[in-house]
What does this fold into?
Amino acid sequence: MVQKLKLTQIGNSVGVVLPKELLAKLRVGKGDSVTVTETPDGVMLTPWDEEFARQMEIAENVMREDRDVLRKLAQ
It folds into this structure.
């Protein structure tokens, strides 16, 4: 699906209005949160998943604390 969306002024910020068809595909609505993930192909928009966010926080902490060990394992 390729769709052109327009950026619009929202207070002091800039936002994008998502069409209801896209909201239905994402299974989100007004007031819900989404995750934006950078990928090699651009950015990916997905519904916010509290459990996934918790797991990513744990993984980031492990990578930060054990950076040297992980670097050696990667060699």
Observations:
- The radius of gyration is 17 Å.
- Residues 68 and 74 are 10 Å apart (CA to CA).
- The chain has three helices and four strands.
- The chain has one domain: 7-74.
